[in-house]
Amino acid sequence: MGRYLVRRLLQSLLLLVLVSMIAFAILHLAPGGPLAQFVATGNLGQEDVARLMAQYGLDRPVPVQYLEWAGNLLRGDWGSSYRDQLPVLTKIGIHIVPTLEIMVASTLLAMFLGGMIGILGAVRRYSFFDHLATVGAMVALSIPTFWFGLAVIYVFSVNLGWLPAGSRETIGDGSFVDRLHHLVAPCIVLALVSTAVWSRYMRSSMLDVVNQDYIRTAKSKGVPAMRILLHHALRNALLPMITITGLHVSTLLSGALVTETVFTWPGMGRLFLDSVSNRDYPVVMGMLMFTACMVLLGSLLADLLYSAADPRIKGAST
Amino acid sequence: MSAVHTASIDSPPQTFAERYPALRRFLRHRVALLGLAVVLFMTIFSFAGPWLIPFNETDTDIRARLMGPFVGPHIFGTDPLGRDILARLMYAGRISLSIGFAATALSVVVGVLVGLVAGFYRGAIGASLMRFVDAMLCFPTIFLLLAVAALIEPSVTSIVVLIALASWMEVARVVEGQIRSLRERDFTLAAESLGASDSRIMFRELLPNAVAPIVVAATLNIAHAILAEAYISFLGFGIQPPTPSWGNMLENAQSYLTNAPWLAIVPGLAITLTVTSFNFIGDGLRDALDAKLDR
Amino acid sequence: MNLYEPIHTPVVQPGAQADQQADSILDVRDLNVTFRTAAGTVHAVRDVSFSVRRGETLALVGETSSGKSVTCLGLLGLTPPAPYCTITGSARVTARDGNAYELVGTPERVMRRVRGGVASVIFQEPMTSLNPVHTIGAQICESLRIHLGMNVRSATDRAADLLNQVGISDPKRRLTNYPHELSGGMRQRVMIAMAIACEPSLLIADEPTTALDVTIQAQILELLEKLQAETRMAMIYITHNLGTVAEIADRVMVMYAGRIVEQADVVELFTQPRHPYSRGLIHSVPRLHSNRARKTPLFAIPGNVPDPTGHPPGCTFGPRCGHFEPKRCDAAVPVLQHAQPGHLVRCVRWPEIEGAM
Questions:
Q1: Contact B217, B238 (CB under 8 A)
Q2: Of chain B residues 5-24, which have a CB less than 8 A from chain C?
Q3: For A165, which DSSP code?
Q4: Which of A13, A260, B287, C75 is 20 to 30 A from C186 in CA distance terms?
Q5: Cβ <8 Å between C78 and A236
Q6: Can you give the pLDDT at residue C7?
Q7: Residue-level pLDDT at B7
Q8: Which chain B residues in 142-181 lie under 8 Å from chain C, judged by CB atoms?
């Protein structure tokens, strides 16, 4: 297990370096470079631009700039926003919690709902429910998240008035219940894609497991059906789901951005969108790196969890 | 020694359907056929439709603004500027579908090239290419799209390139995996021993055998590309008005949600229908072609 | 019903009749198993009747699709549910406490009690028959706790005893092992331990040694014989390997295309096989000749097993039989006749097929 851990960490570090290079390259693709915000106003002359470039160190060779930038990242200096001069990491720190709220809540919902649908579909294979679930999952993956969000707002907010149309809390009332109330709609909307993914993979995982010899053995021992399902089958079927969840972080982050836009949720997605609109490059860059790190971390954690959960791997690398 | 009784050899296949078992399997996949029908309909609808209706997408008629669907002569109603929604939907369909197809074509070309080279040469070249692919995949799609979109002048061409940039990786992965396994097969070794050049082996021997998963990946890619365009146009960084796309129609519809919901329903429905259909086709292709691979 | 008692006390069956019947653990009458598939209806098992007595080993011999495995899976209800699979006929199994259970058409909750508690199965593939995410101790204890209601501590102790009984050393430590940490032979021993945990009166072994090395095969066979001697359980041993049959069986039943074609005491079957198929099988076993001059080509029964969805009229073995006689053999399916007491054969021409092997 130790050796596996080290190997995985090294892989992740390599990817991290590559990610940083790509992010840096993207920034330097900007027409006008990182000073585009200033150049766009058109007030600056050539000497001013040259002076600014020297000031920001933008006239040095690119690899040098990259190394300095990367070095800063490691030191915790992710730059400051062009708009309000706040450190990028601080801004991210402020906005990350609301995003994590909807990400975690929707994942839990998706696991539960998607898991149930997947298991039922596998157990009642080719039944009407199964076909409905398969088609439903396909449609759910094709619906634009923001459209679904608008639909939820229209039905539950505008028409029924059950749920608030946006924001994280009502002004003046920041109680837990109020926050929960505001969480419902964005959570449901973000969970749409995750539920579809979970139900499809859960179904195929369960089908794989249910046809295994050891399930036949359990049945021949006289084990009750429910116990076979939960204790024997599910325990095996959940293993690949760990990996799936790890790979799903990227999709979840994208969905969170869109959901936050529709529900004016004050999370990282909103911050990113605003920064892009304002050409606030340090924040954009920092967030690109940060989200890529989140994806890498998610994948790493999933792999570690998997190797801890599957006895065949746990013992293998020691 | 007694004679062994063997079954008779099947007579060679005669009909068209017998000669292309994959096609036959696909045709049996009712849902995929439905998807194909819908896609064809949407394509014809978008490209030929405008000749069939009396309205233009740019004709504004302030008096008839925000009319509901099925009320007057405008089947799907009108938008805040009095433009016919149905017409806009068709023109927007042209843009969105074209972007979807073009972006996919581009991403498939790039992805296949990268995957071919990485799978064929393996070793350091293959590993570094695939690590690069992995690194690109670490960026959440929308974040990547927006970050680059902010840097460029949005036009149909640039959006196509942008979406292709964010979707070639999956194709590359699929191709690399296929090529890597095909690389070990006897026919490859045979070609090598006959002195065939690298590029000849790659393009004449390996690539034709990898077509099936590429086709499946490409079909699913179209679905993703259409969605991607919708997302970035909705967020304001894609196709800019007045050019209509299904995505930016939805962006306009946001502020009129309470009093004119059909503005949002119609384009959203179009996107969902089209993307679902491509997904169904992709699934059907996967079932039809995968089975063939195993035989 | 607590079965955890030393098995030296004779079990009295309420309402016992003849001596033979009192000893009969399994009584199968006219068992039929039919599958509904996309290709058509498959009669996997037809009109199979047999009994197995306490302490006796019945070998079920045949090629693939002879119905030998399906017979036993069908007995325990391990086949797909209706409407994909229909089972008719009757099968009565007697437990150690004397209770008899009907196996065909019984509700699932009764079958659950029978499986593992009264009759157990061990399968062919030890590598995949154990759940990879649970320790073998947990899997053995599961049987004990379900059928005997034991608590964890006593179940663990008993599991260790069982591992000892099946010849696994250091049982206490082995209980915490996962299946992937054991070799194929050891996993099969664990399967056997699981099967006999609740002291069933009947053990069905479905080709338990086919997937193992020859040396391990011998060990497993020895183990099964030893356990049978200790526990006096009835055993059905399914195989296509005649060598193992000679070693372990008391009686043999040869199956072809879903029917019993011959049933006899093991010695008699090997010395005086009556049915052309059995004769063919026994003739096919390669022999080592010390005398080089006597080397003959290996014998194989000509032809192939018939397609399960379409059997030839009359005797299903007809097309492959060297003694086939038109109008006699294909007129109707032959019935089982007594060639000798205790020796049944399904062939109309058996008296004319003479000669020992």
A1: no
A2: 5, 7
A3: S
A4: C75
A5: no
A6: 35
A7: 40
A8: none
* C-alpha span between C126 and C130 (Å, rounded): 7
pLDDT of residue C162: 94
pLDDT, chain B, mean: 83
Spatial neighbors of B124 by CB under 8 A, at least 6 apart, are none
Three-state SS at A264: coil
- Look-up: residue for tokens 């492959």? C320
CA C98 vs CA B99, C92, C201: distances in Å: 77, 12, 10
Per the DSSP assignment, residues forming a β-bridge with C33 are: C45, C87
- Encoded tokens for B238: 């894609």
pLDDT at C17: 40
Structure token digits, residue B37: 């029908």
Backbone angles phi, psi at B243, to 5 degrees: -65, 125
Whether B2 contacts chain C with CB within 8 A: yes
Which residues, other chains included, contact C211 with Cβ-Cβ below 8 Å and sequence gap of 6+?
C124, C125, C126, C127, C184
The angle formed by the CA atoms of residues B135, B286 and A198, to the nearest 5 degrees, is: 60
| Chain B residues within 8 A of C300 when measuring between CB atoms | 4
Minimal CA–CA distance to A189: which of A243, A241, A226, A152? A152
Half-sphere exposure of A99 (CA within 13 A, CB side): 23
CB atoms within 10 A of CB B89: 23
And the tokens for A88? 């990028």
Contact B94, B47 (CB under 8 A): yes
Residue with tokens 């014998």: C299
Q: Among partner residues C302, C304, C319, which is closest to B2 by beta-carbon distance? A: C302
> B42, B31, B123, B124: which is closest to B89 by C-alpha?
B42
Specify whether the CB–CB gap between A186 and C100 falls below 8 A. no
End-to-end CA distance of chain B: 34
Provide the 3-class DSSP secondary structure of residue C26. strand
Element (H, E) at C192: helix C184-196
pLDDT tens digits, C169-184:
999 999 999 999 999 8
Helix axes A145-152, A176-210, angle to 10 degrees: 130
Angle between helices B246-253 and B262-294 (to 10 degrees): 150
Give the span between the Cα atoms of A103 and A253, in whole angstroms: 8
- List pLDDT tens digits, range C36-50: 888 888 889 999 999
Distance CA A23, CA A17 (A): 10
Euclidean distance between CA atoms C268 and C251, whole angstroms: 9
| Nearest-angstrom CA–CA distance, B86 and B177 | 44
Pseudo-torsion of CA B127, B129, B131, B134, nearest 10°?
-140
- E strand or H helix at C47: strand C40-53
Work out the minimum CA distance from A162 to partner chain B, whole angstroms: 15
Could you tell me which residue, B8 or B123, shows the higher pLDDT? B123
CA B246 – CA B255 distance, rounded (Å): 16
C87 touches chain A (CB under 8 A): no
* pTM (2 d.p.): 0.83
Q: Tokens standing for A44?
A: 């600056």
Instruction: Read off the pLDDT band of B6 (50, 70, 90).
Output: very low
3-state secondary structure of C148: helix
